[in-house]
Amino acid sequence: MADKRLFVLDTNVLMHDPTALFRFQEHDIYLPMVVLEELDNNKKGHSEVARNARQASRFMDELMVNISTETIAHGIPLTQGSLSNSSKIPSGNLFFQTETLEASLPSSLPGSKSDNTILGTALALKTQQPERSVTLVSKDTNMRIKAAILGIHSEDYRNDQVLEDVELLYRGMSEISDDFWEQHSKEMHSWQEEGRTFYRLSGPGVDEWYPNQFIQQSDEEAGFQAIVRNVVDGDAIIETTRDFASQNHNVWGITARNREQNFALNLLMDPEIDFVTLVGQAGTGKTLLTLAAGLAQTLDEQRYAEIIMTRVTVSVGEDIGFLPGTEEEKMTPWMGALMDNLEVLTQSEHNSDWERAATNDLLNKRIKIRSLNFMRGRTFLNKFIIIDEAQNLTSKQMKTLITRAGPGTKMICLGNIAQIDTPYLTETNSGLTYVVDRFKEWEHSGHMTLLRGERSRLADFASEML
């Protein structure tokens, strides 16, 4: 019993991840009564938080079936929960607060506040059960700071973290050494299909590549760039990339300004790749490249019926309040990036005002703006879907969106994981980080991290110095 830890859960943990109840393996979980009150206060509405609050309550309701009052007092086994058939079956117990626990909080922390009531409960449990390790788990940084001041051991909820360090995130590109061809030339075969050059090779390091990962020599001037098409039993098939830096191969008038942009366009223009993630700082060209590829494949090649663009409506400053109009009109203020990039893509000194107006009218019919709030239950057929600011999505929201894709649909997620505006999300548990890591081994997905800003010398200097 002594080695079984007791975790006191803050409400925000369950509202962030309802399955947290089943994520503590052999350890026990304690829920203060005020946590149930807060879940009840947050259960109404269509937001992700409200859905999570309702799901957490449903999980607890399932655990309470045919449970006696005596069993509740001694702990409800978590083995009978909805996730009990998963690979890691929790063997701990769930305890509810069934009596008032007295704890001496400092006078500066009144017990009427919910956070301080939870702190008081954790402090009382620590005093009541000195033989056990009592830990408060909270997503709230200030809550953890107050717990440390009171001498309560506290931790962040880390089960949903994809990586320990964001620096380990897959970048979509690998550099090969200068002696690469010497090491791999013995069993190498090359051929051409429809004007494309392929190589089959084996040797050291090949089995560490991922499908649709780009490889290039460390010397950028050397010029060799390829994409990994397949890796089976230590053998890899690679294909030389298309050169979108040349004006002859421009995409809707846009050319790649650096190697990462060229790699991104290779992914965006490939019909065999259904899911693309582009990560990079502001000004690296994520939205512009994606829109150019979408327009080229929707209007010129007729590969997709229309472009659908959406994003998370998280304000940087104060909220501007409710907006009148249709769904598209309500989303317009959030789509400044779309409008700015469309202006770049449609401007031409040779076009008259009438031609520009006709172009804009055509684009308005083929580019639709949609809200994330109305995505549940929908299926998109033959659509080119762009999810902007994807770093502000949770892993569950990302799953909800990606599973909307029907046959013939391509989905692109754009974002900067260093610029997260959603509470309780970090670089290591963002939905964008989650899908980059989970999709890297799938043969119909691709990822690229864009490194260089291409906006202006002012923007580049500001990104570096401010």
Keywords:
Rossmann fold; elongated; 3 domains; about 30% helix; six-stranded mixed sheet; about 475 residues; alpha/beta
What's the layout of helices and strands?
Layout: E1 6-9, H1 11-16, E2 28-31, H2 33-41, H3 48-63, H4 69-74, E3 76-77, E4 93-96, H5 114-128, E5 134-137, H6 141-149, E6 153-155, E7 173-176, H7 180-184, E8 189-193, E9 196-202, E10 214-217, E11 225-232, E12 235-240, H8 259-268, E13 275-280, H9 286-300, E14 306-311, H10 327-331, H11 336-346, H12 353-366, E15 367-369, E16 383-388, H13 395-402, E17 410-415, H14 431-439, E18 445-450, H15 457-465
Parallel strand pairs: 1-2, 1-5, 2-4, 5-6, 7-10, 13-17, 13-18, 14-15, 14-16, 16-17
Antiparallel strand pairs: 3-4, 8-9, 9-12, 10-11, 11-12
Helix pairs in contact: 8-9, 9-11, 13-14
Count of DSSP H/I helices? 15
Q: Count all strands and give the number.
A: 18
Kindly identify the CATH topology of the largest domain. Rossmann fold
| Share of residues in strands | 15-25%
Structural class: alpha/beta
Low-pLDDT windows of residues: 314-320
What gap, in angstroms, lies between the N and C termini? 52 Å
* Mean pLDDT across residues: 86
Shape: elongated
Instruction: Tell me the major beta sheet.
Output: 6 strands, mixed
Radius of gyration (Å): 26 Å
Total individual domains: 3
Please write the CATH class name of the largest domain.
Alpha Beta
CATH superfamily of the largest domain: P-loop containing nucleotide triphosphate hydrolases
Describe this structure in words.
- The chain is an alpha/beta fold and 466 residues long.
- The chain folds into 3 domains: 150 residues, Rossmann fold; 75 residues, no CATH class; 213 residues, Rossmann fold (3-Layer(aba) Sandwich), CATH 3.40.50.
- The protein is 32% helix and 19% strand.
- The protein contains 15 helices and 18 strands.
- The strands form 3 sheets. It has a 6-stranded mixed sheet. A 6-stranded mixed sheet has the order 7-10-11-12-9-8, with no helix packed on it. Strands 15-14-16-17-13-18 form a 6-stranded parallel sheet, with helices on both faces.
- The longest helix has 16 residues.
- It is elongated.
- The two termini are 52 Å apart.
